[in-house]
């Protein structure tokens, strides 16, 4: 890759020796070196990387041509939509951040599937989830008679076993609105004891049909004995008539009389979900029942046998894995690993619940990718993320240095534009450990003002090398004017040497002197990220903005890069949030 720089440089040197090269010619030469020296290695290292653009109008290219070039490039600046992801998070070992489902896109897809509003409250009358459940349960209801007759032939009493959460009782509003997809056992107990859960759509009717067909009904949940009375009461409150404290099994607490039953044996002191649930089903069958159907929303509800048939209900909002029983192979009782997901969440209308990447599996995959520990702190020395960034910066830095040096000697004021969060400053520990992937602007400001962010791996060396080679550094961030001084201070603190106040652009607050600049016009009262950033880059290219030639534009979000006004956009990986 570096050979393209070496081979091109002598020709540029020769061009520089011609008499009085025009500004247009100098811009063209600068574009030529950056296209060869940066676009080629970046294209080889970044799957989502877009092609080069023409030089800006101050160097002889019309704004119309720039617009056309930007439009063509922007079509390539789109997130990946097909993913392969193992449920256990192991797919994060690949140094491929674009291949990890973005957690914000996953949330949007889940909310579309449940037709949830902006506060995380699911629609209780119509949604893709309700439609899918209606189809699944409707089909299963037509098979109840056959299942009953099959079980009856065993000489035992036909039975159906049902899990509680998201099988008979619907937890979505708690998971999203109350917990923001971060499980809190204290808050969960408040909901349980308060009997706050509605029925899972369609299940009251299904259980009633099973009772009418002659089945004995059992409940089997991971909720504990202290929650048993409230759970049975909640079930009755929403319309179930089949459950009572005798046929509803909850897990022991280990306190007082709530001890592990003698009919359950486990490999270690702490039973797995499958050991507990399969052992309980075995116990039910020992009482003279044949479990014709076992219904649950988790694969661990269904594994371990002791049921003639299983019914998996969709639930992408959490994942509770468990090792299967020793020697038991049930390959069909496993999560999907291939997904199609558009970044805007619209796939939630069409793909079905099992076709949505499970949010807990996505978190596990992200943490593997960043080498994060159980508390959400990223490994600062070694991880697939650091490996990927090392490859990217290692490929680009030599070419960028050469491009900056040659363009500087040509006198075209070369510059590179850099976003802040997860481009120059690394926010992972804030996003995971502090915010649990649920953005909090107050907490974010505390981190910004406290200058708590480390440098994005590999970027200090790349940025400082570009600056030393003749490129001016332009900072362009969605952080606001009140955060500007702290951001520049943080950058200097972690080793960046070239950022200055005049060339660091932050967003206006609308208060006092912090107002929308005259060089930015927007279609609505609130500017989009692309309007703000692309027009700021256009301003940087004008005489008033410094008259710079933007050789490369670095960002972790596609919205950092769209809208043109840079020769080469360079996308850094970031599956921890999505800012369209």
Automatic annotation (TrEMBL):
Chain positions covered by the region annotation Disordered: 1-20, 52-73
Gene3D superfamilies with a match to the protein in the record: HAD superfamily/HAD-like
Spans through the membrane: none
Ranges in coiled-coil conformation: none
Domain of life: Bacteria
Annotated keywords: Signal
Pfam families: Acid_phosphat_B (PF03767)
The name this protein goes by in its record: Acid phosphatase
């Amino acid at each position: 890759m570096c050979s393209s720089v070496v081979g091109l440089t002598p020709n540029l040197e020769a061009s520089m020796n011609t008499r009085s090269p025009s500004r247009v010619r100098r811009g063209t030469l600068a574009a030529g070196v950056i296209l060869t020296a940066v676009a080629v290695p970046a294209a080889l290292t970044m799957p989502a990387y877009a092609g080069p653009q023409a030089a800006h109008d101050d160097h002889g290219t019309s704004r119309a041509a720039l617009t056309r070039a930007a439009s063509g490039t922007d079509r390539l600046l789109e997130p990946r939509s097909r993913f392969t992801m193992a449920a256990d998070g192991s797919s994060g070992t690949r140094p491929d951040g674009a291949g990890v489902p973005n957690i914000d896109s996953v949330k949007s897809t889940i909310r579309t599937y449940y037709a949830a509003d902006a506060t995380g409250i699911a629609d209780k009358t119509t949604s893709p989830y309700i439609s899918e459940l209606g189809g699944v349960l409707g089909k299963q209801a037509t098979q109840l008679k056959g299942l009953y007759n099959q079980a009856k032939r065993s000489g035992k009493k036909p039975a159906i076993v049902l899990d509680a959460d998201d099988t008979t009782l619907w937890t979505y509003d708690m998971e999203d609105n109350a917990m923001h997809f971060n499980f809190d056992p204290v808050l969960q107990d408040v909901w349980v004891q308060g009997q706050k859960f509605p029925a899972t759509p369609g299940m009251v009717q299904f259980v009633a049909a099973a009772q009418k067909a002659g089945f004995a009904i059992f409940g089997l949940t991971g909720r504990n004995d202290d929650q048993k009375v409230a759970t049975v009461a909640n079930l009755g409150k929403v319309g179930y008539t089949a459950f009572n404290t005798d046929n509803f099994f909850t897990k022991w607490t280990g306190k007082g009389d709530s001890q592990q039953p003698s009919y359950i044996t486990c490999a270690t002191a702490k039973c797995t979900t499958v050991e507990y649930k399969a052992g309980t089903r075995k116990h039910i069958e020992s009482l003279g029942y044949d479990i014709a159907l076992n219904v649950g929303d988790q694969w661990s509800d269904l594994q371990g046998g002791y049921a003639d048939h299983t019914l998996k209900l969709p639930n992408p909002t959490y994942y509770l894995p468990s090792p299967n029983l020793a020697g038991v192979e049930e390959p069909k009782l496993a999560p999907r690993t291939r997904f199609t997901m558009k970044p805007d969440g619209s796939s939630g209308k069409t793909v079905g619940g099992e076709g949505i990447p499970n949010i807990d599996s996505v978190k596990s995959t992200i943490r593997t990718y960043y080498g994060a520990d159980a508390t959400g702190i990223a490994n600062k020395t070694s991880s697939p993320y650091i490996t990927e960034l090392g490859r990217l910066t290692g490929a680009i830095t030599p070419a960028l240095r050469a491009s900056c040096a040659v363009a500087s000697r040509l006198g075209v004021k070369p510059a590179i534009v850099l976003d802040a969060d997860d481009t120059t400053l690394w926010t992972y520990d804030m996003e995971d450990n502090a915010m649990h992937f649920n953005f909090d602007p107050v907490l974010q400001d505390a981190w910004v003002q406290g200058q708590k962010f480390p440098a994005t791996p590999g970027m200090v060396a790349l940025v400082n090398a570009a600056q030393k080679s003749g490129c001016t550094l332009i900072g362009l961030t969605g952080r606001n004017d009140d955060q500007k001084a702290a951001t520049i201070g943080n950058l200097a603190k972690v080793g960046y040497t070239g950022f200055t106040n005049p060339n660091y652009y932050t967003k206006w607050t609308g208060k006092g002197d912090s107002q929308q600049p005259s060089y930015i016009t927007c279609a609505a009262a609130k500017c989009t990220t692309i309007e703000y950033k692309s027009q700021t880059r256009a301003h940087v290219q004008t005489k008033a903005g410094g008259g710079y030639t933007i050789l490369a534009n670095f960002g972790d979000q596609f919205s950092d890069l769209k809208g043109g006004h840079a020769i080469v956009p360079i996308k850094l990986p970031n599956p921890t949030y999505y800012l369209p």
